[in-house]
Specification:
Elements lengths: L3 H16 L4 H20 L5 H10 L6 H13 L6 H9 L5 E4 L3 H11 L7 E4 L10 H11 L7 E4 L4 H9 L2 E5 L14 E3 L6
Parallel strand pairs: 1-2, 3-4, 4-5
Helix pairs in contact: 1-4, 2-3, 4-6, 7-8
Length: 201
C-alpha cells in the first residue's frame, strides 16, 4: 500500500541534507549497504529493532539524532501507491481485513494517521508491539486469532517474498505477492498468486 521506495527516498534526502556532506549517490549506497544486512539480522533474531535503528546510522558515522530525524521524515513523507485506497475500499466490502506490519511502532502509527487508511482494517497488528517480527508464523496466528479466522480461509498479501511470504509460509497461510517491479521469484517461498497491482487482487 505504501510506496516505501518513494517514502524512504524523500526521508533520506532530508537526512542527507542535515547530516552529511558526501555526494547523494554515495550516501544512498552507504545507507543501503548498512541498512539491508541489519534488517536481515533483525529478521533472524540476531539484533533488536532498537539496535537496528541506531546501528545503521552509527555505521555511517552519523550522530544518534539522525535516527530520530529519519523516522520523523518517514512519517511526514509517507506516500500511498495510487491504487491503494480504492483497492482497500473494494476489498473491505467483501472481506475482513487486518494489517500486519513490521517496523518501528510509532512510525507505523504515524503513517496510518497521515494516510487515513486505518479504518479499512478490523485490526492493526504492529509486530514489535506484540513481541514478534516477520517472518515469524506466530505473527499471523496472532492476527488470525484476533479475527477468529482459520488459516485455510486467510490470504496474506504483501510485497516482500522474504518477510511477508516467509511469514505466510511459516503460518500455513496462502500468499499473494504484489510484485510491482517484476522481480524474479524468491527461492523456497510458495506463492499462490502474483499480481502487479492491488487492483488485480
Amino acid at each position: 500500500m505504501v510506496d516505501y521506495a518513494r517514502t524512504e527516498r524523500d526521508a533520506l534526502h532530508e537526512v542527507h541534507r542535515r547530516f552529511f556532506r558526501t555526494g547523494r549517490p554515495e550516501f544512498l549506497a552507504a545507507f543501503h549497504a548498512a541498512n539491508e544486512p541489519l534488517w536481515a539480522a533483525y529478521r533472524e533474531h540476531r539484533i533488536t529493532l532498537a539496535e537496528l535503528r541506531l546501528e545503521r546510522w552509527a555505521r555511517m558515522g552519523a550522530p544518534p539524532s539522525a535516527a530520530a530525524a529519519f523516522e520523523d521524515a518517514l512519517c511526514r513523507s509517507v506516500t500511498l501507491f495510487p491504487d491503494a485506497r480504492a483497492a482497500l475500499r473494494r476489498l473491505s466490502l467483501r472481506f475482513r481485513l487486518a494489517l500486519v506490519t513490521d517496523g518501528i511502532a510509532h512510525v507505523q502509527r504515524a503513517k496510518l494517521r497521515r494516510t487515513r487508511i486505518g479504518g479499512f482494517f478490523e485490526h492493526v497488528v504492529i509486530a514489535p508491539e506484540v513481541g514478534l517480527r516477520k517472518p515469524d508464523g506466530a505473527l499471523l496466528h496472532h492476527t488470525l486469532d484476533l479475527l477468529a479466522a482459520r488459516t485455510r480461509d486467510a490470504l496474506m498479501v504483501g510485497d516482500s517474498p522474504v518477510s511477508d511470504g516467509g511469514c505466510a509460509r511459516a503460518a500455513g497461510v496462502d500468499f499473494c505477492w504484489v510484485n510491482r517491479t517484476g522481480a524474479p521469484p524468491a527461492p523456497g517461498v510458495p506463492v499462490r498468486r502474483t499480481v502487479k497491482a492491488l487492483t488485480t487482487i
